Amino acid sequence: MSSEPAAHGASPRQVVRLALQALPVLAAEPLYILVDTAVVGRLGTVPLAGLAVAGVLFAQVTTALNFLSYGTTARSARLHGAGRRQDAVVEGVQATWVAIAVGLLVLGLGQLFARPVADLLGDGGGVADAAVGWLRTALFGAPLILITLAGNGWMRGVQDTARPLRYVLTGNGISAVLCPILVHPLGLGLEGSAIANVVAQVIVAGLFLRALLKEGVSLRPRPDVVRAQLSMGRDLILRTAGFQICFLSATAVAARFGAASVAAHQVVLQLWNFQALVLDAVAIAAQALVGAALGAGGADQAKATGARVTRYGLWLGIGFGVLFAALYPVLPGVFTADGDTLATIPQAWWFFVALQPIAGVVFAIDGVLLGAGDAAFLRTTTLVAALAGFLPLIWISLAFGWGLLGIWTGLSLFMLVRLVAVGLRARSGRWAVTGVG
């Protein structure tokens, strides 16, 4: 298939190639947790509830600092589109320095605050104890995950998604083999799953560092580049804070309704996180292609690419909705055999199914706007949707005893507000600003 003219945007082949290669990379961390959920679920309700609390806490490492990936992709892609590959790789070097420094800080602070935060989100008893044990081990992977985020960022920017695919498949394979062995036959229990993840993260981060070294660019820190990255990162961190506050609150409120409630929330939430990043694979393709088009001065090409990936996101979302509806009789039982948990899962499941098409469109347009560097707009709209929609319904659910029905109604409102906001922004075309400045 030949490429379409520039005014028609990136070809379907380009979008599909980048999306399919980015998919396992995006799904890596949620897949770690999904494997953990399936393995740990056989230990009982309390370990699974402990993983729910600890998993949400640990996920904040990747979500709070995702500017190391998304921000680096946007900046590297523009430079790559302008024919400045070496400068695009330098963005990766500087992002890696930030990753190392911030990762070590996260490791230290995490060890210090693991117990009080787990007590706050859990029940202060067995669930909190289980969460702390898993979290303190898993935190040793924090610097490694951040190095991986930085590596993904610059490689996506130069449209090299094949090597990250190989790196992550290697790590996932190792984790998938080690996790059940360490948890069950070797008797390490819940902490065994965390050890398996850290081993895999060491290998994957090492592969990204080796790739960076082989580029032959200067490794010295560049304060000017770091400042520019942190400026964009500020908006992305604030945006992510909206997600964090809501999802941490949702887990805390679910825990107040009992172990079965938080365990059911864990199962559906991890499926949500997993499919969200599957849908986001199309958005990653949009980031790289839109950024490169704008760096090369092709505003019309960027707009056409944005429209195309939005259609792809809608189709994928509809497909996922049909798939998860069909899998309802069997899929929850993969993660737990506990009768109370299985009886609670339907309260969240059908919200999860219905939201798939909306999520497909929202995540696709997010990728377009991130590729354009439109982080300030995404920051503002996410915070408005979180503070005006999701967060109030979470806490109202606690006050009125609505349980998971109230929590997932809040998530639905959050997604609808974002759909309207990003949809109007995409149609306006004001995000399509060309150049590398």
TrEMBL record:
Chief location category: membrane
CDD domains reported for this sequence: MATE_DinF_like
Keyword Transmembrane helix included in the entry's annotation: yes
GO cellular component terms, semicolon-separated: plasma membrane
Pfam family, one: MatE
Superkingdom in the source lineage: Bacteria
Topology versus the membrane: Multi-pass membrane protein
One GO MF term attached to the UniProt entry: antiporter activity
Signal peptide: none
Subcellular location(s) of the protein: Membrane
Membrane-spanning parts: 48-68, 89-114, 134-155, 167-188, 194-213, 236-257, 277-297, 309-328, 348-369, 376-396, 402-421
Keyword Transmembrane: yes
Keyword terms: Membrane, Transmembrane, Transmembrane helix
NCBIfam families listed in its UniProt record: matE
Family: Belongs to the multi antimicrobial extrusion (MATE) (TC 2.A.66.1) family.
Full protein name: Putative efflux protein, MATE family
Organism, as annotated: Pseudonocardia oroxyli
